[in-house]
């Protein structure tokens, strides 16, 4: 499940970068939201889940 969510988070970041220079302000705000969501989840995976070692 974490792998699938990680892939979705990466797609959010890529789509956000693609939409950031859209024609309207609404499109730019949606892009910022997508990038923020993706980056926050990837940071969560990196710091919380990835930090657990046996």
Automatic annotation (TrEMBL):
<keyword id="KW-1133">Transmembrane helix</keyword>
<keyword id="KW-0472">Membrane</keyword>
<keyword id="KW-0812">Transmembrane</keyword>
<feature type="transmembrane region" description="Helical">
    <location>
        <begin position="32"/>
        <end position="51"/>
    </location>
</feature>
<protein>
    <recommendedName>
        <fullName>PEP-CTERM protein-sorting domain-containing protein</fullName>
    </recommendedName>
</protein>
């Amino acid at each position: 499940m974490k792998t699938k969510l990680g892939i979705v988070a990466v797609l959010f970041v890529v789509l956000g970068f693609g939409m950031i220079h859209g024609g309207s302000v609404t499109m730019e705000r949606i892009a910022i939201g997508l990038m923020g969501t993706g980056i926050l989840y990837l940071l969560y995976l990196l710091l919380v889940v990835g930090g657990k070692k046996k």
